[in-house]
């Protein structure tokens, strides 16, 4: 016990979790790249801030759509999410390659992204907000009454049942502990 033979299972689990996260994050990227390809062709001159907003909005919309569709058919489980994300990734790659073959994006002689001060300010702001959010989520435990009493039990039920079903037993406190 305690030897090197005891380690492969936790390491494989770690790599499985990292791979799953990577697939979930990268699944919608080819669709987003297809939208960006069409947008660049239509607009002509790229704008970094507009492209960032489009990428973030499209990625979030696709991920929400996957979650809502799987939850509505009572299949919100990791294997279903991974299958859906794999299908998104492969279909998106096919669409993107088809778009690029039919209408290649003409590269201009200058850099593809605008280096204006507003774009750099926007990028810096996004990075700062992202770091602050990741830090806050990573180090702050959820301890407020509202989250623990009302929201968390419902999400636990969703996670355990794999669907957006209403919990069978909903307990309501006799009073809310705040004056408002």
Structural features, described:
This protein has 180 residues and is mostly helical. The protein has six helices and no strands. The chain has helices at 8-26, 29-43, 48-72, 78-102, 117-139, 145-161. Helix 1 (8-26) crosses helix 4 (78-102) and helix 2 runs parallel beside helix 4 (78-102). The protein is globular and about 60 Å long. Residues 106-114 have low confidence and may be disordered.
Radius of gyration: 22 Å
Low-pLDDT residue intervals, each spanning 5 or more residues = 106-114
Kindly state the mean pLDDT as a whole number?
79
**How far apart are the first and last residues' alpha carbons, in Å?**
56 Å
- Which structural class fits the helix and strand makeup? mainly alpha
How many distinct helices? 6
Approximate shape? globular
What does the main sheet amount to?
Answer: none
Task: Name the helix and strand elements from N-terminus to C-terminus, one letter apiece.
Answer: HHHHHH
Strand residues, percent: under 5%
Helix content: 55-70%
* DSSP summary, beta strand count: 0
């Amino acid at each position: 016990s305690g030897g090197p033979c005891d380690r492969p299972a936790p390491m494989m689990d770690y790599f499985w979790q990292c791979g799953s996260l990577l697939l979930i994050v990268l699944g919608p990227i080819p669709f987003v790249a297809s939208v960006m390809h069409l947008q660049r062709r239509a607009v002509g001159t790229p704008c970094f801030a507009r492209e960032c907003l489009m990428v973030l909005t499209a990625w979030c919309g696709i991920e929400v759509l996957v979650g809502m569709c799987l939850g509505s058919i009572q299949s919100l489980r990791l294997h279903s999410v991974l299958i859906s994300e794999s299908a998104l990734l492969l279909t998106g790659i096919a669409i993107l390659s088809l778009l690029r073959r039919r209408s290649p994006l003409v590269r201009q002689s200058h850099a593809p992204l605008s280096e204006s001060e507003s774009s750099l300010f926007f990028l810096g702001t996004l990075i700062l907000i992202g770091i602050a959010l990741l830090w806050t989520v990573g180090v702050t435990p959820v301890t407020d009454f509202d989250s623990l009493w009302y929201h968390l039990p419902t999400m636990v039920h969703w996670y355990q049942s794999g669907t957006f079903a209403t919990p069978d037993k909903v307990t309501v406190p006799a009073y809310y502990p705040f004056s408002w």
